[in-house]
Amino acid sequence: MNEELKPVRCGCGGEAFTHILGNEIAKGYYIACDECGTKTKVFGYEAEAIEAWNRAMGAKDINVFDKGFWKPVYESEATGFDPSLAGCDPVFGHVCSICGQETLTNDLGEEYLSDFCPHCGADMRQEHEDIPMEYFESGGK
Asked: By the 8 A CB rule, do 68 and 97 touch?
């Protein structure tokens, strides 16, 4: 592969590597940081994984001093679903509290809540007591 990986820009000090899953018949590729674990989803081609990584690492200037948290997005927010019909409002996914971008997911749609936002580089390693009280008072919305 000729295309170079952009450096990890979240401030963790790690380095990005290409990882290969599968065997000679069926392979999958993803890029991950060896320090904080930020990673892309799995792609069928190495070039796709590299392109996704480079796009995420070049998305915007990263301020390593930003402190964020993975904010839950409820099903009613994402789909317009009326929670009173089912009696509950499950978590649909998560977004960065700083940039509003979604978490990375694998091919099965499982979220990866990394220590750093892969889009803006915000440090997501916070305890719940560091999350603003207004977030909880508003019902997490």
From this structure: yes
Place of tokens 């290969």: 20
* pLDDT tens-digit series, residues 5-47: 888 776 677 888 888 888 777 788 888 888 877 777 778 888 8
d(CA 53, CA 42): 11
Give the domain ranges of the chain.
16-137
**Nearest to 68, CA basis, from 138, 4, 126:** 126
Three-state DSSP state, 128? helix
Instruction: Report d(CA 113, CA 135) in Å as an integer.
Output: 19
Q: What is the DSSP secondary structure assignment for residue 94, as one 8-state letter?
A: E
φ/ψ of residue 67, rounded to 5: -110, 125
Digit-coded pLDDT (tens) for 80-106: 878 788 788 888 889 988 888 888 776
Residue type, 67: K
0.90 surpassed by pTM? no
